[in-house]
Structures are given as structure tokens and as C-alpha cells.
Amino acid sequence: MDTSPETRYSTTTPRLSTVSPPRSYWHFFLEYLDNSVILEHYNYTGKLKNRCEGLKPENIVFLMVCVLIVLENAIVLIAIWRNKKFHLPMYYLLGNLTLSDLLAGIAYMANIVMSGPNSLKLTPLLWFIREGGVFITLAASVISLLAIAIERHVTMVTMRPYHGAKRGRMLILIGASWALSGFLGVLPIMGWNCMHRLEQCSTVLPLYSKSYILFCVSVFTAVLLAIVVLYIRVFRIVRNSTQRQRLTFTGSVRKGLARKSQKYIALLKTVTIVLGVFIACWMPLFILLLLDFAYPTGGSRVLYKVDYFLGVAIVNSLLNPIIYTLTSKDMRRAILRLLCRPCLMTSDGQVKKLGMPFLECSFSKTEVPSQKLEGGLETTISSGMLSPQHLQ
């Protein structure tokens, strides 16, 4: 008789009742090591079919994208580490975002390798670790974007220079982003799952509860709205400051303010790119997860195409370094020197004429000389990064 997992579970009804008897903590722990739980949940949600296939072409493409994510973010981290100019509190959040994106690429690669037929070999404990690793790193990347928005907003509101207190604020934001990501990621393994409650199971993630899926979507939607609100406030601060100065000064100064007015418009374009990329990458996955909550388990075929939606979301980790670092002239110089120093630099450390166009080009066209703001401060506008400093 055929005793393969698909034969044993393809025609049977779930053996667990929806109301389970009281269980001891030891019994609860043993169920996390029971491989049959995986088979049962995958069969109930309809994801047991075609599990014997190896890597699909789209999975190979996603693996290649993950390799690019890891390499790209590793280069940025090395450039930050080797260049003392970047050993400042203002670059801590950028480094944290880069690290979370790098780890997201590694976690998703591991997820792909352990999927397909390998999913049926996992215990619930390993399954929760596999999915939780991807969730925590992606959540850290998203929340890091919020941390950057918070820092930019606080900097523009307080108009304070970079001093020792800012280092502590940066570390608090970094620690809070990872603490929140870790908390959200471990909730299923701590008990917020659908084991023994099959009718509450997610189709996309067969061991996750639909209520947990809805909770996570709500949290990430709140993060997105917070980012939008903060960047709108940053833009309004720059615009209002420019308008007040335009009314105060005359003559040649007003011409300078007219140029500055163009710069905050460029800032708006950069912020639009940041938010547009974030929404374009994550919104399809959010919509899919909302459908997963709304439909009964296995109620829609599109729910079985989650790999494509998650692949689009992971692309955000590929684009983040381009948006947040490569638009900075200093970062471009550091990265290009790291990748091809002999091609761009002479023996005495000067930039070759051939390499100058690559170093001076600007993706967002917002990298401009410092402009004075109120209170004897100045603001450097680069990729939406606003950072007031004392004039020397």
C-alpha cells in the first residue's frame, strides 16, 4: 500500500477536532516536533498538491534577486564601515536599514531552499522558524523606514545640530525597530497560531491564524500611514521656512531663495519616489493577505500564488540601498572607490576625469550646496535627507 504523505492525507478529513482537550505544556511542546501536523495543515489548506516538485523557474529567479540583495547591501555596509566620514549617528539608521535588507535576502533564500518538498519534512517548530525569520527581517526593513522618517522629522522640528544626545536617540530607534519586529515575528511560535483550529488557518501560511495575519497587515498599514504623514510634515516645514525667508529678504538673496524653492520641490519628488516604491512593492502582498483573511481557507486560487507577491515585496530590499544611499554623492564616491578604485582614482588619490561624471551624477538631482535656514542653521538636502547643522 502506498504510504506517501500525499496518499495518506489527500482523501482524509482532519483528524483533529476544532475543540481540543486540555493539554500539558509537555504535550504542547511535543506537538511542535510532530511532522504530521505540517502534513495535516497543508492538506487542509490545499497546499499539499505539487509539493514533490523541485525548484521552479520563478524560485530560481527569486534566488538570483536575493543574491543581488545580499551583495548590494553588503557593499554598502562595507563602504560605511571603511569610511570614517560615515561613522556618525546620522548614518546609524541607514546602516541598520542596510543590515535588515541584507538579512532579509539571506532569510528569503533559506525560505526558498526549504520550501517545496522540503516543507513536508519540517516540524512545526522549524516551520515557524523558517517563516518567522523572513517575517522578522522584512518587518525590520519596513520599520527601519519608519525610524528614518521619525529621525528626519525630529531633526527638522527641533532644528538642533548633531550632538552627543543624537547617538542615544539613534540607538533607541534601532533597538525599538528590532524589538518590535522580533515581537511580531515570535507571536505565532508563542501560541498565536491555528494548530488544532484548522478552520481558522491562513491559506497563504497554513500554520498561521487568520487573525494574526490581519493584525500584521494592520500594523504595517499603520507604519505606512505614519511614514506618509511624517514626510508630508517634513516637506511642509521646508516649504514654510522658504516662504518666510522669501518675504524677509530681497534682491540677490531672493534669487537664492527662488533656487531653494526649486530644491524643496525636488525634495518632494524624492519623497514621492521613496513612498511610491514602498507602496508598489508591499501593497500587492497586503491585498493578498487581506483576501486570505476574507476568504474561507482555500477559497481562492490566487492565494496559492503567494511566492510572486512575496517576491515583489522582497524587491523593496533591493531598491532601498539605491534610494537611500546611492543618491548621496559621498556614498557614491565611497562605493565606486571600493568597487573599482584603480579605474577611478590616480596613484596620488585624485579622481580621474573619466570617473568624474559617475561620481558627480545625481539620481534625484537634489544634492545641492547647503542653504541657510532660520536660527543660523543650515540644511543639506540630499535624497530627502534633511540635516540642520551649525554654521562654521
TrEMBL record:
Subcellular location: Cell membrane
Keywords assigned: Cell membrane, G-protein coupled receptor, Glycoprotein, Membrane, Receptor, Transducer, Transmembrane, Transmembrane helix
Domain G-protein coupled receptors family 1 profile: 72-324
Membrane topology: Multi-pass membrane protein
Membrane spanning residue stretches: 60-81, 93-113, 125-150, 171-192, 212-234, 264-288, 308-327
Single GO MF descriptor: sphingosine-1-phosphate receptor activity
Cellular component annotations (GO), alphabetically ordered: plasma membrane
Top-level lineage group: Eukaryota
Record family assignment: Belongs to the G-protein coupled receptor 1 family.
Protein name listed in UniProt: G-protein coupled receptors family 1 profile domain-containing protein
Organism encoding this protein: Mugilogobius chulae (yellowstripe goby)
Organism taxonomic ancestry: Eukaryota, Metazoa, Chordata, Craniata, Vertebrata
